[in-house]
Amino acid sequence: MSAPSFAAPLPLGAPRRAWLTDLPVLLVAAFWGASYLAAKGITTTHTVVAVLVLRFAVVLPVLVAAGWTRLRALTAAQWRGAGTLGLILGGIFLLETYGVVHTSATNAGLIISLTMIFTPLAEAAVTGVRPTRAFLTAAALSVTGVVLLTQGGGFTAPSTGDLLMLLAALARTVHVLAMSRIKAVRTADSLSLTTVQLGSAVAVFAVLAAFPGTGASPWATALDFGPREWAGLLFLSVFCTLFAFFVQMWAVRRTSPSRVSLLLGTEPLWAAAAGIALAGDRPGALGLAGAALVLAGTAWGRRAADGADRPGRAREADRPGRAREADR
C-alpha cells in the first residue's frame, strides 16, 4: 500500500483520524522503551528464565483463544516455520533479558536499536546488493554512537550487558531475515504466526527452567513476587506484548506499514527517557553524545534504506494483481 500523496487535498478531519491511529502506535513504542526498565526492576541473574516463563505464559492462552480457528488452519510447513522462528525469538528474549540485568535501561534500548542498521546490511550480504553510501555512513555513525554510549566516565571495555544487547540486536536481525526467507510463513496469518512463535519460545524457557543451574523456578519466583514485581510482570505481559501486538495489527490496516515502523522506531527515545527520568541513568557527556549519534544514525539509516528500496516496491506494485494484493 503506497503512502498518500501530500499534494492531494485531504478530506476534512483526515489529519485527526491519522493522529487517532498514530497515538496508540506511539504508545506501544513508549511501552517498549519502558520495558527495559521494567524488566530490570523485576529480574535478577537467577530469575531471568523464570520471569520469561511467567511473562509469556500470562498472554499465550489469550492469543490461543483469540486465534484458535486460524491456528487449526495452519499447514504442517507453517507450523514448522513458525516454530523455527520461535526458537530464534526465544534466544532473542534470553539475550535481551540477561543483557538488561547487566547494563542500564538507557544503554539497552539504544543498543538494541542497531537492529535497524544490521538488518539492511545483512540483507545486502545475502542478496549481493550493495548498500548506498548514505546508509553506510549512517551505519558508521550509529556504531560510533554505541562505542561512545558504553563509555561512562572514560574509555573502558563495554559491560557484559552491553555485549549481550549487541548480540540480541544481531539475533533480531537473524529473526527478520529468517522470517523473510522461510516461504511457508509468508502466507501465514499474523496472529497464528505470533502465537506459535511465542509458544515455541515459552517451551524453550520451560525446558531451561527444568534444568538445575538455570536459576529459580517459575513457581518459586511467582511466590516471591510482591505487588511491585507483579505490576512489572503484568506491564510486560499485557502492555508490551498483548496490547502491542493487537495495536500493530489494528494500525497496519488503517495506515501504511512504513508509518507504523517509523513510529515504533521511536522506541530508543522512550528507553533513554525512562532510564534517565525514572532510573537515574547518567550517561555523561560522552554517553549523551553517543546516544545522539545512535538516534541520528538509525533514523538516517532507516530513511536511506527505505529510499533505496522504494524503486523495487514500485516495480512490484506494477505487476498484475499486485495492487489488489497489497490492499487486503
TrEMBL record:
Membrane topology annotation: Multi-pass membrane protein
Domain EamA: 23-150, 160-299
Gene Ontology CC: one annotated term: plasma membrane
Membrane-spanning parts: 45-69, 81-101, 107-127, 134-157, 163-179, 191-211, 231-250
Region span, Disordered: 304-328
Main localization of the protein described in the UniProt heading: membrane
Family the UniProt entry places it in: Belongs to the EamA transporter family.
Protein name: DMT family transporter
